[in-house]
Structures are given as C-alpha cells and as structure tokens.
TrEMBL record:
The lineage of its organism: Eukaryota, Metazoa, Ecdysozoa, Nematoda, Chromadorea. It comes from Pristionchus mayeri. This is ZP domain-containing protein. Pfam families: Zona_pellucida. Gene3D superfamilies: Zona pellucida, ZP-C domain. The chain crosses the membrane at residues 181-203. The keyword Disulfide bond applies. Keywords: Disulfide bond, Membrane, Transmembrane, Transmembrane helix.
Length: 249
C-alpha cells in the first residue's frame, strides 16, 4: 500500500483536504500474477475489532462502494496488478492518524482474480514493479494459507495550524544544526588552507633540493673532465711540469 501526492511523491503525512493517490499492489513474489481487493476501509484505529472503531468502507464484496464517492473515487486497476484511487485527506474527529485497511486475495493466475466490478485502465507507466519494491516497508502485511492478505497503511493528517506549530518547534533544532554546519565548514576551510600551504612548502623544498643535486652532479662532471684532461697531458709529455707541456702545445 502506497500513498503519493498528485506529483508522484511518496507521503506519510499530508494537510487536511489535500488530494492523495492510493495504491494497492502485488508483493514481490513471482508466483502470484494478480490481486483482488475484497474489502478496504478508512478507520481511526489500527485494531479493527474494537467496538469503538470508526470506519468508512470504500471496497466491499470485491467491488467499489459508490456511495462514498465524495470522499474517495471508485477504485480502478491496471492489469490486475495495481489497484488505485484518489481521495481528499480527512480526519476522524480530532485524531491526526488515519488507518487504511485492505483485505485482498492474491492469485496464481489472472483468471482466479478476474473481476468486472473494478474499471480497468491502461497505463504503461504504472505497474506493480515500480511501486512494490520501493515501498515494501511502508505497510504491514499478514499472509494466511488461504492466499489472503491483510494490509494496513497509515497516513498522518494535520491542519494548517498544526503544521505551522510543528515547523516552529523544529526551527530551533534546525538553527542549531545550521550553526554546527557553519562551524565545521569554517574548520574544514582552515584545514584545507593549511594543507595547501604545507604542500606548497614541501614542493618548494623538493624543487630546491633537486636543483642542488643537479648542480652537484654538474660540478662533479666538470671536475672529472678536468682530471681526465690533465691525466692525458701527463701521459703525452712525461717528465715535464704540466704548465710546460701546455706551453709546448
């Protein structure tokens, strides 16, 4: 069971009078090919056995209840895999929690769940696979051996005043979070700048060390070349001082 806004956004709460979309879909089980709602109702309690429970039934005897059309549109289906409708949110007296209960039969073949009560429409963008996996945990399901599922969904319905009060109570917490966020952002910026400075300093030292190493190698090569030249002159003119040999050349 899934509740979505008219924009397709999954919702767990809404403002009173807001229009929502209601979906009842197959569970992730390749064995079953179709589903058939037997009974669906709104209530103010999760315990449907309580004598004090208030309820509004919109599916009964595997057919939509037309008399509650002002509250919820007649349920329709897509390929016997998705049953859906639209309704305007309301409350039972002053209770903000509204429960939606459905008893549905799941079938191994589409013929077992064949129905003429629910209007069938074609919608290539709406199928069970796109709804059931993403919202698997949004509802509670009890499966019996008779292939009957009891499904319960919950929606919180608030007035405009209650929504403002909720936001006002949450504002201090949001402000505190923003302060912490600014602090950590500033700290992260300082650490980043310090890291950049350290990296530039280390690169400068490494570059300087490479230049010194290159100069030392160049100097050593020059000295080695001069030594080789001197040795060559001595070999050519043995017994003479080096400066004499040079003059004779």
């Amino acid at each position: 069971m899934v509740f979505r806004s008219i924009d397709g956004i999954p919702l767990r709460e809404a403002r009173i009078g807001e229009q929502l979309e209601f979906y009842l879909t197959l569970q992730p089980d390749n064995a079953y090919k179709a589903i058939l709602p037997r009974e669906c109702m709104f209530s103010d309690r999760e315990d449907m056995q309580s004598p004090e429970t208030h309820r509004i039934t919109f599916v009964q005897g595997s057919c939509p209840v037309i008399s509650v059309g002002e509250i919820i549109d007649p349920v329709q289906h897509v390929n016997q895999e998705v049953f859906f409708s639209k309704f305007k949110t309301f409350r039972f007296r002053n209770q903000s929690t509204v429960f939606v209960h459905c008893t549905a039969q799941v079938c191994l073949t589409k013929e077992e769940c064949a129905t003429t009560c629910f209007k069938q429409i074609k919608n290539s963008e709406l199928d069970a696979a796109r709804l059931r996996f993403r919202h698997k945990r949004d509802t509670s399901v009890r499966r019996s051996e008779a292939q009957i599922e009891d499904i319960t969904g919950v929606i919180q319905v608030y007035t405009e005043t209650e929504q403002k009060e909720i936001l006002s109570r949450a504002a201090p917490l949001l402000g505190l979070s923003s302060t912490h966020l600014y602090f950590f952002s500033a700290l992260l910026l300082i650490v980043s700048i310090a890291s950049i400075i350290v990296i530039v300093y280390l690169l400068h030292r490494l570059n300087r060390r490479n230049k010194e190493s290159t100069f030392d190698l160049y100097s050593a090569a020059q000295l080695r070349s001069m030594a080789n030249s001197s040795a060559s002159l001595v070999d050519r003119y043995p017994g003479y001082p080096l400066h004499v040999h040079t003059a004779l050349d």
